[in-house]
Specification:
Elements: no helix or strand
């Protein structure tokens, strides 16, 4: 197994390299070119990846706990099942990225671009997604309990049976979103835009719906009147 723990790899070009299972914990990969690299099962705990290019990289099952990835561009990367607990992904470009089953508990995703990302079954408990762009994202069955989603763009997103208990959705843009069966118990939806959203079977007990926007196309749970 390749051991690069604590290595200074700032700006290095590792395009297309095979680093499957490698130990890169604590390494400095600031601005590195990791396009198409295979990091499957690698240990990147507390690694510095700010400004790195991870486009098309395979990070399936990788450990990125406590890693810094802000302003990183892993467009189309595979992060299925990755451990991203507490990772700093502020402003990261995660467009179309595969994050199915990933652990993003407590992650900092403020201002991140997650358009069309695949987050089915992902754990985003207590994550901060303030101002993030999640247009068209698939969060089916994901856990966003206690997450901060203030001002987030979730237009057309799939939130089918997604856990949003106690989440902050103040001012969120949920136009045309699929919230079928979503768990919104005690969630704060103050000022949220639910125009054309589908909330069939959603759980809204204790949810704050003050000043929400909705129209004739908004579908509410049976017997519910906003």
């Amino acid at each position: 197994m390749c051991n690069l723990s604590g290595a200074n790899l700032k700006g290095v070009n590792l395009r297309g390299a095979n680093l499957s299972g490698a130990n890169l914990s604590g390494a400095n990969l600031h601005g590195a070119n990791l396009k198409g690299v295979n990091l499957r099962g690698a240990n990147l705990k507390e690694v510095w990846l700010a400004g790195a290019n991870l486009e098309g990289a395979n990070l399936e099952g990788v450990n990125l706990e406590g890693a810094t990835l802000y302003y990183t561009g892993p467009e189309g990367a595979n992060l299925t099942g990755a451990d991203l607990r507490g990772a700093i992904l502020k402003g990261a470009t995660l467009y179309c990225t595969g994050l199915e089953g990933a652990n993003l508990t407590g992650a900092d995703l403020r201002g991140a671009n997650l358009r069309d990302a695949k987050l089915t079954g992902a754990d985003l408990y207590d994550a901060d997604l303030t101002g993030a762009d999640l247009k068209g994202v698939n969060l089916r069955g994901a856990n966003l309990s206690g997450a901060n989603l203030e001002g987030v763009n979730l237009e057309g997103a799939t939130l089918y049976y997604t856990g949003l208990e106690g989440a902050n959705l103040t001012g969120a843009y949920l136009r045309g979103a699929d919230l079928t069966g979503a768990y919104l118990t005690d969630a704060d939806l103050t000022g949220a835009d639910l125009t054309g959203a589908d909330l069939t079977g959603a759980y809204l007990t204790g949810a704050d719906l003050t000043n929400i926007k909705y129209d004739k196309d908004t579908v509410w749970p049976e017997g519910f009147k906003p």
